[in-house]
Amino acid sequence: MSQFLIAALYKFVALPDYQDLQQPLFDFCESQQVKGTLLLAQEGINGTIAGSNAGVAAVLAYLRSDPRLAQLEHKESWAETMPFYRMKVKLKREIVTMGVPDLQPDTMAGTYVPPEKWNALVDDPQVVVVDVRNDYEVSIGSFQGAVNPNTTSFSEFPQWVQEQSVEGGVLAGGAKVAMFCTGGIRCEKSTAYLRSQGFDQVYHLQGGILKYLETVPAEESRWDGECFVFDERVSVQHGLEPGSYALCRACRLPLSAEDKASEHYVEGVSCPHCHDQHTDEQKQRFMERQKQVELARARRQRHIGVRMK
User: Fold this and answer.
1) Residue-wise pLDDT tens digits, 106-145
2) Which of these is catalytic: 29, 181, 248, 271?
3) For the chain, is the Cβ count within 10 Å smaller at the N or the C terminus?
4) What are the residue boundaries of the Rhodanese domain, all occurrences included (predicted)?
5) Is 166 part of any domain?
6) Residue 181 bears catalytic tag
7) How confident is the model at residue 308 (pLDDT cuts 50, 70, 90)?
8) Which domain, by its residues, includes 259?
9) What was the pLDDT predicted at 302?
10) Can you tell me the distance from the alpha carbon of 123 to that of 129, in angstroms, rounded to the nearest whole number?
11) How many domains does the chain have?
12) The pLDDT of residue 309 is above 50
């Protein structure tokens, strides 16, 4: 039976005192034995936490006790093992980095489309469906017919929009655009950016892919593959069931069963994506780390940085 509750959350809201919130929030999470990562910035909060049902509920209640976060929404899933190793509360310039100043996602974001109505929108041939995640996330799953911008970081998205807005681009002529991402946060910024560039028909999937996979029955789904998540589960499937992917500890990319069968795969050291990208010195460090992992595994101890079965 799954025993750890996972809560993914974010909210764009003005937090001019965000630096003062860091230590009290960290201390409270620690007191509830909750782990994960929370990002604080002047524009809001973002992150994922995990712990007991009571512990996570207490942290969410603590956050919502701040009137500015009273309407904070979160998405839940469960795991059999703790998906995080420690608690971190970080201060950032942006809670999701695009690098475009003066965007106001809290007031400029596009139109929300609930999961139940998403299929009808993306089935419309006049709609350009855009996956705003990074290429390694898209590689293991996406919506049928979605455009992949092939970005390696979210900060590349504005340039892609500019390139695709000219004649011949997929966004030319003020296209009707539907966007999606893992939990919804990148869509808030990407749709706000498109609206700032003059697009007036901009939509995004409310709650992101995670809410869609939780809500829409598999037999009605337009989703192909699995969804990458930023914790030790690596990926999830419909119903938010654990996926089949592992994580390369050298390059942090998701690995399929085929990847792990490759001659270039050495657990903890290399994979088909990165086997020629690290120096011998780096590989030696990875090998030493993997030895420590295996020793911890033999002692049935949890080693930091290793996905436990």
Assistant:
1) 899 999 999 999 999 999 999 999 999 999 999 999 999 9
2) 181
3) N
4) 123-221
5) yes
6) yes
7) very low
8) 247-298
9) 59
10) 9
11) 3
12) no
User: In this structure, are 124 and 210 located in the same domain?
Assistant: yes
Say whether both 85 and 9 belong to one domain.
yes
Q: Is residue 53 part of a domain?
A: yes
Residue 26 maps to which CATH number?
Answer: 3.30.70.100
| Burial (CB count <10 Å: 0-12, 13-18, 19+), residue 220 | exposed
pLDDT of amino acid 298: 79
Q: Is 303 a residue whose pLDDT tops 60?
A: no
Answer whether residue 194 is part of any domain. Answer: yes
In a shared domain, residues 55 and 121:
no
- More confident call, 192 vs 300: 192
